[in-house]
Amino acid sequence: MADGNAPSIPGLPSGVEEGSVFRSLFAAYPDSLLVVDQSGRIVLANPSAAAMLGYAADELVGLSVEALVPDSIRPRHAAFREAYGRAPRPRPMGTDMELVAKRKDGSEVMVEIALSPLQNQGLPFVVAAIRDIGAYPRVKQALQRARYSEHLAQLGRLAVDTRDLQVVLAQVPDIVATALQVEVAMVWLLDGSQREFRLASGVGLVADESVGLRIANRPDTQPGYVLSQGCPVVVTDYREERRFTVPPAYLEAGLVSALAVPLSDRGRVTGMLSVRATAARRFGDEEIRFLESVASLLATSLQRVQTEEALNHAQRLESVGQLTGGIAHDFNNLLTIIQGNLQVLEELPQLAADGYAQQLVAAAARASRRGAELTGKLLAFSRRQMLQPDAVDVRQMLHSLTDMLRRTLDQRIQIEIDADDPCPAVRADPGQLESALLNIAINARDAMPEGGRLHFRAEACDALPATVRQELSDADAGRRFVALSIADSGTGMTDAVMEHLFEPFFTTKEAGRGTGLGLSTVYGFVKQSRGAIAIDSKLNAGTTVTLYLPQVEADAASAATPADEEPMEIEAEATLAPGLRVMLVEDDAEVRQVVHTFLTTLGCEVATAANAEQALPAMAAEATPFDLLLSDIALGPGMRGTRLAAEAVQRQPRLAVLLMSGFSAELLDADREAPPGWELLRKPYSRSELARAMARALLNVASY
After folding, report:
1. Measured between alpha carbons, how far is 160 from 167 in angstroms, rounded to an integer?
2. 678 with 670: CB under 8 angstroms?
3. DSSP secondary-structure letter at 568?
4. Please, is 647 exposed, middle or buried when counting C-beta atoms within 10 Å of its C-beta (0-12, 13-18, 19+)?
5. pLDDT tens digits along 88-116
6. Would you state the pLDDT for residue 8?
7. Which of 372, 396, 422 is the last residue of a domain?
8. pLDDT score recorded for residue 694
9. Residue 636 maps to which CATH number?
10. For the whole model, what pTM was predicted?
11. Which has the closest alpha carbon to 338: 300, 365, 358, 318?
């Protein structure tokens, strides 16, 4: 590493050789270091390189650097190395370098690489410094959250696609074990008497455990202890556990740590979701949040089945909506955290030039958006509420709906769209219209068990068929309509079945597969929207369901805005004055941190509070008034965000108000109760969406 003519290093103690210092530095350096000759052969490798790449140090010496490059980019890397050899120059980390290294076992690792040629020191070598960026805490955390988000979306799609509880129960442990990378995952259910737990499903079960196993509900068992606590329970080391009895089989199988969360039905524990691992202290806050989210989804499925058994048909649909809405707030908070941190991660200077990391962040962001889309579809599918008619772009809605159906329906079903371009907008409740189309599409799927064709069509209809026209009043029949038809190639229906098709509780499906309310609620929605519905079906020849909905009047048609397009408005970030003073009130600490980061990057001065009781005194204590109050609606057991806003505005009339929530029902209630100047924002949202909502809220105040 040094020759005898090299200048000595000032300050070295007497007797310490310069060469030994450089050798020790090379060996101790935390980054992986490779010294490569002009032919691309490795002549020296430090222990960090051997550990990261999975080789012994002497195995790396003499190896071509091309062996450390994934096969797919090896030719490109060889060409780059040859070009670099002709004009070597220092290159810092992450600049124009391949950013994936191949380990000895064939696995790949994300890396940054710096090159330092030694030719100017008289040595025909290049030093490559390699850093594993997958171990960066923020990158690692973002990738972990993205993986959890993807598996939550997978479970959500499963919950939407099947009403068979046993299918959901069977797949939950697999999904959880894969996401958390643990050895054991189980679902325990408490029987109606609350005396016993039954093992409903599991993977990686130890000796004496099998699906169907029953254990007594006692506090000295893990399920019984979780029931008594009613909150997540973490076991850091089974060998030191004293809160409940640990079966010897756990220790014999090498299991060390565990995490369990309760399944709850309206505050009552009905079961437990648990995981076990062979590593100690395996579970932290991120794993707890993920397992709680899975438990919420699973509990929702359990609640749905139990509700259908306990209530009559008239109560079922409303109960499903309540159950589904129960997970929306926590799930949307989770997605707000994921999306917000990904946006922050994407803008980090150290990753800005890292193309591969940007690809990973973009993939994670897409997964979280799919999670947000899934939440919206679940709410649209199951909620019942007052109709909120608006101008709806049916062409765009069909494209959005079919995108979701392609991911969730049987892949053997071919989905097609045929819509006028442009197609007149209709006046209807967008959520209820989407729910009606989903009901019809799912009925069509059930009529095509071996696959088939599902065709959506939308077209202007100036003249109604005679059989449809007679269902409407003269005033309504004189309007112009849009015909929305959904045709399938399924089994069709007999005339006898069609006579009862719109009757409540009538169903041809087997027990447990349907409520019998699907088409009857579609019928009620269409009639309430001053439209009509027609069905044409032939046995073994398919079914076509056509909804006739009134067109929007010409002066209101322009209000129909596609869901994937932003309304035309001034760029919000440009309209926010620097130094805007914002009081942020949010009870979830991680959501609060994400929103705080958004606000500071928008140039705002931000004060934060976890609840209304903290926020009001803090606002009163400030000599300079705040410009805007940004508050969640649900703030725990104390004052709600709507009440906080009312009191804050009473004290400071020129205060702009922006309320946010993951509950669609909360936003609807706030929209009914709030003054016109208050803005509402649905979680999850991006920084730009937040900025636009803030700008509208400030503009509303300025206009009064």
Report:
1. 12
2. yes
3. S
4. middle
5. 888 887 554 447 888 998 888 888 888 88
6. 57
7. 372
8. 92
9. 3.40.50.2300
10. 0.38
11. 365
